[in-house]
Amino acid sequence: KEILEKYHDQFTLQWEGVIGSMRVPSQAEWEQLLTNCSAFLFYGMERFMSHVLLNWLVAMNIPKCHLVILLDLVRSQQSYQRITNSDIHKSCLRIALERPTETAMLLSLTGVGSVIATQWYTTLQENAERLEVLFENLLSFGKTIGQTVHILQ
């Protein structure tokens, strides 16, 4: 929340979204946010694709979204229990489509221009540090997405 407030004025007057501590977004909200944005940020627990319906995502057309930042793959005891209960009802192939590379490919196929995503499990603090570096370089310094990713590496 602090990072969003810090960069609010530098980026846009219209930050729109849902903070998970408020409520869990519905599928309709996910769709509305993705289709009406030029950049989308997911900062949350477990795999991004475990929060959205695969059939719904692959049917979307979201070419206005130039950048998706997925700072996911954070695990807590509660999130692990939720994901385990959810995965029981999914095929191995469906779970494989939720991995970072596959998620980036699916988002690209829907029209997203660039995807920045974590590749392995991490902590909320590490993702907060990544978000700070991303926003600082993209918004404050005006670096390109490629230059910013290079800095993150």
From TrEMBL:
One of its GO terms (biological process) is axoneme assembly. InterPro entries: CFAP46. This is CFA46 protein. It comes from Oriolus oriolus. The lineage of its organism: Eukaryota, Metazoa, Chordata, Craniata, Vertebrata.
